[in-house]
Structures are given as C-alpha cells and as structure tokens.
Design goal:
The complex is a heterotrimer. Chain A is an alpha+beta fold. Chain A has one domain (about 10-375): Cytochrome-c3 Hydrogenase, chain B (Orthogonal Bundle), CATH 1.10.645.10. In chain A, about 50% of the residues lie in helices and about 10% in strands. Chain A has helices at about 50-55, 60-65, 75-90, 95-120, 125-145, 165-195, 195-200, 210-215, 220-225, 230-235, 260-285, 295-300, 340-350, 355-365, 370-375; strands spanning about 10-15, 25-30, 35-40, 155, 160, 305-310, 315-325, 330-335, 355. In chain A, strand 2 (about 25-30) and strand 3 (about 35-40) form a beta hairpin. Chain A is globular, with a radius of gyration of 21 Å. The termini of chain A are far apart. The longest helix of chain B is centred in the first third of the chain and has 38 residues, at about 50-85. Chain B is built from 17 helices and two strands. Chain B starts with a helix and ends in a 5-residue tail after the last helix. In chain B, strand 1 (about 145-150) and strand 2 (about 150) form a beta hairpin. In chain B, strands 1-2 form a two-stranded antiparallel sheet. Chain B is globular, with a radius of gyration of 23 Å. Chain C has helices at about 5-30, 30-35, 65-70, 155-190, and strands spanning about 55, 75-80, 100-105, 125, 140-145. A three-stranded antiparallel beta sheet of chain C has the order 2-3-5, with no helix packed on it. Chain C has a two-stranded antiparallel ribbon with strand order 1-4. Chain C is elongated and about 90 Å long. Classes of the chains: A alpha+beta, B mainly alpha, C alpha+beta. The interface of A and B includes residues 9 and 122 of A.
Chain lengths: ~375, ~400, ~230
C-alpha cells in the first residue's frame, strides 16, 4: 500500500485576528492540528514613544505613557512619575501616595477583569466577558468621576496627582469593593474558572517552566503562575506599599501542572481579591493633606543623571530608565514593557511539540499581552 | 403511488384522494391527501392529468416546509439574540420593530443586497454547490418530521432511518465549502467539522436504535402514537436506559449542529468563521438558515423520540377532538393544540441549545473526539443493550414499566 | 485512567456545567433588574463635572500667553491675535485682555489630556462635558473657541438636549443623595445616637460645586461661567 503523503501547513495568524490581543502576527508551521514551530512578528503598533519623549518636556510625556499599556494606564503613569521623582529626590505628600496606591490597585482590578473576560471569550465562553465588562464599567465610571477620563487618565504626574479624591468618590470605591469582593468573584469562579470544559482547555496547556520564564525575563502573573513568588510590591516596594498587608498569589498546579495556563489565569483572578484588600486598607488609612506638590506641577527640571525605577504593573515589571541632562526635556526615556518579555516566551512554549492550534490561542490569552506595551 | 401511476388506466383525483385516507399510517402523505380532497371537492370538472396534480401538490408541500423553515429561522435568530443579550445583562436588538422583532428581516434584506463575492482562486462550481448541498441535506430531513397529528409531509415507514441517513449528506457540503474556499483556515476548519459530524453520528444513531427497539417501528407518527396517555408514557420515562440515553442524544445533537460547546467549525476566536469564512451575502444566509433548521430538526426529533411528540401528557387535554363523535370545532381545536404543543416543545429544546451555547466554552478537537468515542459511544452501547433487555422484561409500560411488572396496571 | 476516575470525571464536569448554567439562568430570569445598558442616544448617563470633553474658552479673560498651546503634547491649539498692553503683575500673570482673531482646537489631533487647563493663568480654558463630536469632513473637526460654533443644527439640538438631560440627572442625583442622608439621619436618631454628625472635613478637598456650561455666546455677550475646576492653589 503506498505511503500516504502528508504535508506541513504554514498558517498565518495575521495581524488581524480575533484572538491575538492587538495587532500581532504569528506564523505557525503545523502538522495537522499539532504546532511544530511558531514565529512571532511584532511592531505593528510601534508609535515611537521613546523618541517622542525626547522632544517633549517631563509633563508632556505623561499622556504618552498612558497609551503604552492602555489597560492599566495608572501603573505606567505611576512608574514614570516615580522615576522622575527618584531622580529629583522629590518627596510626594502622604495623601498623594495613598491616592496613587488606590487608583493603581483599582486599575489593576480593571485590567485583570479585562484579561479574565477576553480569555473566556478566546476559549468560546462569551458570557463572562460581558459580566467582566459590566464590573469594569463601574470602575471606569469611578475613574471618570475622579479625573475625567475612562481609559487614558494622565492622573498621576510628577509631584502628586492632578485632582483630589473627594468623599463621594471614596464612598463609591467602597461600594464597589463591597459589591465585588466575595460575591461576584465567586460567580466568576463558578461560571468559568471551575468549569470542566474550561479546565480541560487550560490545564496542562502551555506549561512554562521556571528556568525558561526567568531566562526570558517574564514577570508578573505569568511568572507567578509558574510558582515563583516575585511581586515587586513586596520585594522592592516603592512609595508606601510596605504599609499594606496582602498576599502574593502563586500558581500551584491545582488543576494540572504548575505553570500551565490555568495557573496564570487563576493568579490573575485571585490577585483581584488582594487588590481589593489593599484598596480597603488604603481607604481606611488615607490621611488628609495636600494632594500634589504645586511647584513640581508647574515644571520639573531634574538634575543631570540617570536612574532606573520599576514598579509592579498589571502585567509585570514596568520599568523606566531615565537619562536627564538638566533641561526641561528628558534626554532619553526608555520604557520596559512587561508584555514584550512575556510574549517572547510564546515561541519557546509552542515549539515543544505538544501544542495544538487551539492551544496557541489559549497560551496567548493566558500571557495577557497588550501590544501597546510590546511595541510602545 | 408509483403503482398507481404505472397502472393501466390513470387514476382519477378522487381515487387518489381516497387511497391515502384508508391507511394513514402506511406511507401516508397527509398534506397531500388533504390537498387532493380539496381539488376533488372543487369539482371533477377539472380535468387535470393526475401526474400534474401530484407534482403540484408535492411542490406546494415542499414550499410549505421551506416556508416553515424560513419563518422559524426568522424567529429563532431573534430568540437567540434576545436570549443571549438577556443572559449578558443587556437588551439585544431594540431598534427595528418593538423589541427588535423585525431585526431578522432587516438582516435578511441586508444579506440579500450584499455583493456576491466568489474569491478569484476559489473553485467556483464547488463554491456555489456547497451551500446548496448543506441546505438540501437539512431540508430533505424535514419530510418525515411531524408538526402535529396528521400534519406531516410524508410519514414514511422508515422515517427515522431516512433522517439519520440523509444527515450524512451535510458533511459533503461542509467539506466542499471549506475546500473550495481556497483558504487554509477554512480547510483547517472543514477537516475538523467533517471529523466531528461523522463521529457524532454514531451516538446519534445508537440513540435512534434504542428508541426503535422500544417502539418497534421506524415511523415517527407510530412512535408518537405509542406515547399516548399520561406523561409517564413518554419514552424517556418508559425505560431508565432511555432516561440515560436522552442526554446522550442531546449532546450528540449539539455536536451535529455544530453548536457550542462543539462549535470548532465556526470557532470565532480562532478561525474567524470556520468553513464559511469566505462566504458572504446570500450564500452565507443559506448556511445560517441551514444551521438553524438543523437545530429545529434535531430538537423536534428529540421531542418525538423522548418527550412525547404532540401529547401534552394530560389525557384531558389530549382527548379534545379525538374519537369518532367529536364535533368539528373540537377536532380543529385538538389539531391546533397538538401542533402548538409539538412546535413549542421543539422550540423549548432549541432554547436550551441557545442557553448552553452562551454558557460554556469550546472544547478542543481531541477532547471532542474523546467525548464522542470514549464517553458517549460506550455509554450509548451499554444503554442500547440495557434498554433492549429492560423492554423485553417489562413489556414497555409507563413509568419504567414498574407498575406493569408489579401487576398494578389493569 | 481508572474506572472510578472516568466516572468521577464525567460527574464533576457535568456538575460544573450545571452550576454554570444555573448562573446564566438566574441572569436570564432576573433580567429586568440586572440590565446595564444605557440606550444611548435616547438615554444618557450622568456626566461627572471633571469630565474631559471638548474645550471652552472665556475670551474676555484670555491674555494670549500661549501657555496652553505650549504645554499641549500634540500641538493642537492654534492662537492668533494681538496681545493687550503689558501691565502690572496681578494674580500671577501680566497682561490684559488680548484681541484674538483665531483660537481653534483641532480635534483630529487633541488627545483630551487636560494639560492645557492648568498653566492658564486666568483659568479661562477648560474641558467641558461634551463628547458627542462628529463631522463629515476633516476641516469640520476644528472647534472655534471664540464663537463656540457647532456645525449642524441637528448637533446643536442634540447637545442642548444633552445639557438639559445632564442637569436633570445631576438634580436627580442630588435629590437621591439628600433622601439617603435624611434616611441615615433618621436611623441614627432612632438608634439614639447624636444627630447632626458633621461630616469629617478633609482640608485640601474643597467641596466646590462644579459648574455647568457657559451660556451660548451671543454677540457682545459675556458667558457666565461658574467656578470650574478644583482650586489648585
């Protein structure tokens, strides 16, 4: 009987695809349904943030930092502001620090809700996406009350925050925390996380070994899903994160292997609980006082020097490397987007030979990338 | 009928009309007999050749079934959009018509007015033929399907066998669609679809066979007739193995219709639209309509086989219009009630399919094959054997035959 | 896979599916209570006072210092005119009212960051609550802040309705808040605690009422602007 000839197929999960989060191209070489090799192409969303930052003064760069990781814009703002403050050795008022922590954690919840919703949608469950957005809408309304915008806030600037947080907004945040914390999260877990079909799609898929993760520079929930308890809020706390009591969520191979997609996804879902904890503590302890350094708001001229500062964004370590030459405009701003390193691990994960095309979607979704950060 | 047409003297329309009245359960064409009676009553002054009358009535019946599919398609698309929206805390279509009831008509107009794009490198004859085959495979299966008592296009002796057999034609249509699109992703999806549809015909067929064993006939009207009486006469409650078989049938039917959680063929987040990515406009509308028609079909078959067909399960209501001494008004009321019950039960099962779609994520290909071959098929085989033995032992009485066994029946 | 594992897997998966379906059924049945859609444009949500929408300018205060234009990260503010006489330093800025011939914001470029609000010494430019901004042509996407012109009559009608609706929503919200306060006060009185507990005043968080929009600019008329923006001393 003659041998049946099979051929490998070269597929293009092109820049426009419903489940690559943003414009991102993967060329897959498949043998039937099994992926043999994948090659990712990025750069479709490059907007020259770093070059633009050289031509604008320190205040004007803030709206551009918003648009890097647009789903967790407060973290980007915070990272940049703290970098410049570190260089200037500027002390920000207490109240501003507390407000910054509150909004960063709320934005982390919003970002993780988005990740949760879109991951469910990638795997076929359309309903949790809508539920996540319903809750995210409440957060966006709070942000709109606070600073006027829903997505690109430019709220945290060098020296403090732009608007003060009124009692009404604090009451809204408390109400949200009460609505969100035990009940809605339990509903999400019942509907999606512990669903048998979802578990079989996400568990034991895309196992990220610890050494591979560390060698590629993966950070954030993707690294914590592999069992490494590294959270910059605990390990290298900036501003006042050391005053809060929260746990670092780590994947433990509950439903499959340590470091599979389910672990990474579950780390995100559980982190939302911890963020609510932090927000509640901050609301309880927030002092009164000025909310910004007025002189810094008028214009900033850091001394000559260079500094690197990193914070824990929703997707990992957001870092800014700032070189200043003493003028009102930075000499060089380099932004480290966590999704850039996270996405680089995709080719290694899929080339192991046990990944199917449907699994590729699951892996990309579980790494939770935002192309704005990858390409800047 | 062929015997009649080949007879020496061509039959009159009256003879044709009479022929089907005498033995309703043996290959009867109910709608046609009604139409023949109508023609007969209109006067034997009409000297139409019988083959013309036959052909015309067949065409009318076909169009009636096709019309039902269209109307049902209009309704169920609206139902799906509203149900999915309400599950997701939003409104759904609200603009066109009150609460969006005319939305599907607007969608249909939009689809028909679209440009007919056939990709340049696509295999044009196959590209055009594929939706037709898929739709034909579904439409033909509506022939033995009853919509009410004596409301069926053609109650064949082998009705259930016919439904199962013609269902395989759809697979050819799907393969043609994916292949002729000249699109790697469509081809990918097609191969998945073909595997899925062919595999899930096994548990489907086993479900059919177990009901046939308990009913003793392939004819759908006969099967329903055996479920008369109280609701525990329904096949799902006549036999514990059929109680286990019903979920297997429902899951397999979900896979046959390519509905979530088995919607790999049209996995939106992976393959944009699966095997009908390249189809637009009316061709896509044909695929769409075929999918919803198939959903109704498998739900209606489930109702016929397991859930009592047109009987409500309460003899008081079932008895309206039955019996030789019923008045014309009662007969008509009974007829309408039975049709309404049959269709609404099927629509309820379609609603359950919609509900399941919007709750569950998608299964992967290998998991889908695992479910079919390692879960559904073995359990279906066990149920088949068990159902047969139980039926032999209990004699097919209601409520698992236990009252009959214990001698509580009359 | 052992025999027992096979059946427990089936059972566990079926149970999780049933739980999930019960949640969606609950949402389906309690739909009226749960619906979150706002049927825009027939219904609107309340626009908070700090909302950053399209710009407004108090022309009689502008001294053409170009501070807003300089700070704009994307350079979308175009100002032309003649400066007024330079005068003594007052309220932190020099100069008197300028004669503006052009003051437009290009909305194909503007990113609504709000940076232009702060450096303005007389605080005469601000971002308002409108966002329903559409045009059929790129040239129509520039707003002339001197005349507050909107470009089509339908847009004007819609924006006017939106303003009225927003005021109604604000009034409604105030009414609800007052009711809640009254209820809370009653509850406290019933519990025997001290009534009239003053709210903890946080200095640095002024409770200035955020104002609405200026009246339409008539010829020679001055817009009346209520205090807008938190005081940033």
């Amino acid at each position: 009987m003659p041998e049946v000839k099979t051929e490998e197929m070269l597929l293009n999960m092109g820049p426009q695809h419903p489940s690559t989060h943003g414009v991102f191209r993967v060329v897959i070489r498949t043998d039937g349904e099994m992926v043999l090799e994948s090659e990712s192409h990025i750069g479709y969303l490059h907007r020259c943030f770093e070059k633009v930052a050289e031509n604008n003064n320190y205040l004007q760069v803030v709206p551009y930092t918003d648009r890097m990781d647009y789903l967790c814009a407060m973290a980007n703002n915070l990272g940049y502001a703290q970098t410049v403050e570190k260089l200037m050795k500027l002390q920000v008022p207490e109240r501003a620090e507390y407000i910054r922590v509150i909004v960063t954690e709320l934005n982390r919840i919003a970002s993780h809700l988005m990740a949760f919703g879109t991951y469910g949608m990638d795997l076929g469950a359309m309903t949790p996406f809508l539920y996540a957005f319903r809750d995210r809408e409440m957060l966006l309304k709070i942000f709109e009350k606070l600073c006027g915008q829903r997505l690109n806030y430019s709220y945290i600037r060098v020296g403090g925050v732009t608007f003060d947080m009124t009692d009404e907004i604090l009451a809204d945040i408390e109400r949200f925390c009460e609505y969100f914390e035990p009940d809605i999260l339990k509903e999400y877990n019942d509907l999606l996380s512990y669903n048998g079909i979802f578990i079989s799609r996400a568990a034991n898929v895309g196992v990220l070994p610890v050494d591979l993760a560390i060698s590629y520079g993966v950070t954030g929930p993707s690294l914590r899903g592999s069992g490494v308890a590294r959270d910059l809020r605990k390990d290298e706390p900036s501003s006042i994160y050391d005053r809060f009591d929260f746990d670092v969520m780590v994947g433990s191979g509950e439903m499959g292997t340590v470091g599979d997609c389910w672990d990474r996804y579950m780390v995100r879902v559980r982190e939302m609980t911890e963020s609510v904890k932090i927000v509640r503590q901050a609301i309880r302890d927030i002092p009164s006082g000025p909310f910004c350094d007025k002189k810094a708001f008028r214009g900033v001229k850091p001394p000559k020097g260079e500094v690197y500062h990193k914070i824990e964004g929703a997707r990992g370590e957001v870092g800014f490397y700032l070189v200043s030459d003493g003028t009102v405009k930075p000499y060089r701003v380099k932004a480290r987007g966590p999704s850039f390193c996270n996405i680089s691990v995709l080719d290694a994960l899929t080339s192991k030979g046990d990944c199917m095309v449907a699994d590729m979607v699951a892996i990309i979704g579980s790494l939770d990338i935002v192309m704005g950060e990858v390409d800047r | 009928m062929s015997g009649l047409l080949l007879a020496q003297t061509p039959p009159t329309v009256g003879e044709l009309a009479n022929q089907w009245n005498t033995n309703p359960h043996q290959g009867g064409l109910y709608l046609e007999s009604a139409l023949y009676q109508l023609v007969d009553a209109m006067g034997s002054s009409l000297t139409l050749p019988p083959w013309l009358v036959v052909a015309a009535t067949l065409l009318v019946v076909c169009l009636l079934v096709f019309g039902f599919i269209n109307v049902f398609g209009l309704f169920v698309v609206w139902l799906e959009r509203k149900a999915s929206a309400h599950i997701q805390c939003r409104y759904g279509p609200m603009e066109v018509g009150p609460h969006g009831v005319l939305q599907t008509i607007a969608d249909g107009i939009k689809l028909t007015s679209k440009e007919d794009i056939v990709p340049r490198l696509a295999d044009r004859p196959l590209f055009v033929l594929a939706p037709i085959i898929v739709f034909a495979g579904v439409l033909v299966r509506f022939v033995p399907l009853p919509f009410g008592q004596e409301l069926v296009a053609s109650d064949m002796d082998l009705g259930l066998f016919f439904v199962a057999a013609v269902g395989s034609v759809e697979v050819i249509g799907v393969i043609l669609a994916g292949w002729s699109s000249n699109n790697k992703w469509s081809l990918f999806a097609t191969m998945r679809t073909a595997t899925q549809m062919v595999s899930y015909e096994i548990p489907l067929g086993l479900a059919f066979v177990s009901v046939i064993v308990c009913a003793g006939t392939f004819s759908l009207q006969e099967i329903i007739a055996q479920q008369e009486g109280w609701f525990w006469n329904w096949f799902i409650l006549k036999n514990p193995f059929l109680l286990l078989m019903a979920p297997i049938y429902l899951v397999a039917s979900l896979a046959e219709c390519k509905r979530a959680p088995f919607d790999l063929p049209e996995a939106e987040s992976e393959l944009v639209s699966g095997f009908h990515t390249e189809y637009s406009g009316m061709r896509f509308a044909i695929f769409f309509l075929a999918e919803y028609a198939a959903m109704y079909l498998v739900s209606a078959i489930a109702v016929v086989l397991f859930f009592g067909g047109w009987w409500t399960g309460i003899p008081l209501i079932d008895g309206i219009g039955m019996g030789a001494d019923a008045s014309a008004g009662a007969a008509v009321t009974g007829f309408v009630i039975k049709a309404a019950v049959m269709v609404s039960k099927a629509v309820f099962l379609v609603f359950v399919q919609i509900w399941v779609r919007w709750t569950l994520p998608r299964v992967r290909l290998d998991q889908m094959m695992f479910i079919c071959w390692k879960v559904l098929t073995p359990i279906a085989l066990v149920c088949l054997v068990g159902a047969t033995l139980w039926h032999l032992a209990s004699g097919g009485g209601g409520l698992f035959g236990i009252p009959a066994l214990l001698g509580l029946d009359g | 896979m052992t025999f027992g594992q096979y059946f427990t897997d089936i059972f566990r998966v079926s149970r999780s599916i049933a739980i999930g379906m019960s949640i969606t059924l609950k949402y389906l049945l309690t739909f009226k209570k749960n619906v979150v859609t706002v049927q825009y444009p027939r219904e609107r949500d309340l626009i908070p006072p700090r909302h950053r929408g399209i710009h407004y300018l108090e022309t009689e205060k502008c001294v053409m210092c170009w501070k807003c234009s300089d700070i704009c990260p994307v350079d979308c503010i175009y100002i032309e005119g003649t400066r007024g006489a330079d005068g003594p330093l007052q309220d932190g800025y020099r100069g008197q009212k300028a004669t503006l011939s052009k003051f437009t914001v290009d909305y194909t470029v503007c990113i609504f960051c709000g940076l232009c609000e702060e450096p303005c010494p007389p605080k005469c430019i601000w971002l308002g609550p409108e966002f329903d901004f559409n045009a059929t042509d790129r040239t129509m996407m520039e707003k002339n802040l001197l005349t507050d012109e909107l470009y089509t009559q339908e847009d004007e009608k819609f924006v006017e309705w939106a303003r009225v609706e927003n005021e109604r929503l604000v009034a409604e919200k105030k009414r609800l808040a007052a009711e809640e306060k009254a209820k809370a006060a009653e509850a406290k009185a019933a519990a025997g605690e001290a009534t009239a507990v003053a709210e903890k005043e946080k200095p640095g968080a002024p409770k200035k009422e955020k104002g609405g929009l200026p009246k339409k600019k008539e010829k020679g008329g001055l817009p009346t602007k209520k205090a807008k923006g938190d005081t940033k001393e």
